[in-house]
Amino acid sequence: MPVRAPADATVPSPDPKRSLTVTDQRTQREYILAIEDGAVRATGLRQIRTSPDDFGLLSYDPAFQNTASCRSAITFIDGDAGILRYRGYPIEEIAGRRTYLEVSYLLIHGDFPTRTELDDWLHHITHHTMVHENVKKFMDGFHHDAHPMGMMVSTLAALSTFYPEAKQIQDSVLRERQIHRLVAKIPTIAAFAYRHSIGMAYIYPSNDLGYAANFLSMMYRPSWTTGYDPSPVLAKALDTLFVLHADHEQNCSTSAMRTVGSSYADPYVCASAAAAALYGPLHGGANEQVVRMLQEIGSKENVPKLIRQVKAGKRRLMGFGHRVYKSYDPRARIVQKVAESVFSEMGRNPLIDIALELEKVALSDDYFIKRHLYPNVDFYSGITYQAMGFPTDMFPVLFAIPRMSGWLAQWQEMILDEEQKIARPRQLYVGPPERHDTAKPASRPV
Ligand code: ACO
């Protein structure tokens, strides 16, 4: 018969109807853990010990598959139902109706801006798009074929050296100023990285263009003319893609932003760390990999061969599967519509037919059905970017531009959350026990 452990005087007794009773079979003791918002506190397990000098029980969760690291009021995802909401608003209601900068404001400030707030926000974002001339020189130092994402990761970190005031992260006015700078400058850095990689002169931002149109202008305007009108269809499509990528709760890059930020590092180096996490092929690099995979498949007839390779565990179907979505990613449906609008302007990207065939075959195959593998946002975004004329190397950069809003919203929420401390996971040590170095060291110059 288990013996109830004495209550921990530092923890309020849980409501019995909202609690979990745990019996430690090693000691036959019973513990009551409070359930709050569908979770038990991992630190509550520490009281479960076999002796007074036992450290207490840890929870083991490699890759954070079942661990909530924060309370957040920014983005809600129901992965089984395929639901994504920003600050409570369903993504389907916002995408295409609200501009990216309105959504950026919503994520960072909690509500859509009033007319006056929007004017003020647009003014600040527009007037911070320029980068210091030394940033340009810094970027000039990269090798001619440097990957634009590598350039972006480094340049974001370099911005830290230009704005030492950013270290004062507890000052709300200075925090807001760095937010303006980062949202405003990331398209400029992205476009400069692209121009550098093709050996063309940088194009400065134009204050009379909207956020997406200005980015297109910095990317594509010939340097010998000031007359360049970005296509409104492409600007609108890009702006909608920005909205779809603006936040996605505690993903790998956002967790990096929060983790680095928890040491009170300034937001530029935090954003650089987040962008580095986004660079990986399992995260923001996936859209690039999707296009490479579709190019390799080459035609619809080769789809079954690729599916066989995936099922044999030889490779992954890029753009499929998600840690959270176990049904269709709602963003993927919207990207399909955006792709059609881009094709109407630029012509159809032939890779779309291979992608559609791949989706059809995969979604009727037991391997994918059993594992709940559906297209994610990256499955169609790369094809769309390609149809818009963006080179493959730029795809993760195009993801990073709008995700900056999510990173900053999450970073600020973390800074203001009194429950947060420096992020510092525990480990289960599985190395050798204490041993002693008794061998005679080889004599070498030091
Ligand atoms: N192709 C083939 N099999 C897959 C794929 C895939 N894309 N994704 C998962 N699986 C299989 C795994 O092999 C595993 O099978 P098993 O149970 O027989 O071993 C099972 O599905 C579960 O996979 P996990 O790797 O445990 O799933 P996890 O949640 O860790 O991974 C991830 C999620 C990384 C996104 C994965 O699905 C993947 O690698 N997808 C391809 C890359 C991609 O598209 N990334 C973009 C994600 S969205 C974003 O970052 C915006």
Which CATH class of the domain at 286-387 applies here? Mainly Alpha
Tell me, rounded to a whole number, the average pLDDT. Answer: 95
Low-confidence stretches: none
Instruction: Give the biggest sheet.
Output: 3 strands, mixed
Basic shape? globular
- Number of contiguous helices: 17
Residue share in β-strands: 5-15%
Associated small molecules: acetyl coenzyme *A
Give the SSE string.
EEEEEEHHHHHHHHHHHHHHHHH
Q: In the CATH hierarchy, what is the superfamily of the domain at 286-387?
A: Cytochrome P450-Terp, domain 2
Q: Name the strands of the widest sheet in spatial order.
A: 1-3-2
> Can you tell me the CATH architecture of the domain at 286-387?
Orthogonal Bundle
- Which range best describes the helical content: under 10%, 10-25%, 25-40%, 40-55%, 55-70% or over 70%? 40-55%
Please tell me how large the radius of gyration is. Answer: 25 Å
From the helix content, strand content and strand pairing, which structural class follows?
mainly alpha
**Secondary structure: number of strands:** 6
Question: How far apart are the termini?
Answer: 64 Å
